[in-house]
Amino acid sequence: MPEPRDFEVQVLTRHDVGTMRRMLALFGEVFEDRRTYTSAQPDDPYLAALLASPTFIAIAARQQDAVIGGLAAYVLPKFEQARKEVYLYDLAVAAAHRRRGVATALIEALRRVARDIGAWVIYVQADRGDDPAIALYGRLGMREDVLHFDIAPAGGGH
């Protein structure tokens, strides 16, 4: 029998800007990139609009007000058929809460959202050497070996 969860999973809405900010702080901590995730955060109206967008999904795992895990995904309407794909962009769990089913619960919530919006597939990138992520995603889906390239926009970019 599975252990009872001591956290709740919540799909964020436009009313959850504060939770989204706590999730951004968690991403900065877990990914060791606080500058990207916390130094130039958008204002509240931007985050509220993003959370209300049909092309963005944010899901938080919480213990009371503390965000212990988070997931951000994008919905991609397809052109070759009338269907959607979901790209799981970021997933993080606080170090003290790993190996307790938090990441799996976040992905299961995303699977339900994907089903409800009529998505065809969820896909995610895992970097070589990130063995815990590769093991997690391998348990939940089919592996494809692909190459990823970052192409800067004309005139600059990152």
UniProtKB/TrEMBL annotation:
It comes from the Bacteria. One of its GO terms (molecular function) is acyltransferase activity, transferring groups other than amino-acyl groups. Pfam families: Acetyltransf_1 (PF00583). CDD domains: NAT_SF. InterPro entries: Acyl_CoA_acyltransferase, GNAT_dom. Residues 7-158 form the N-acetyltransferase domain. This is Aminoglycoside 3-N-acetyltransferase I. It comes from Caldimonas thermodepolymerans.
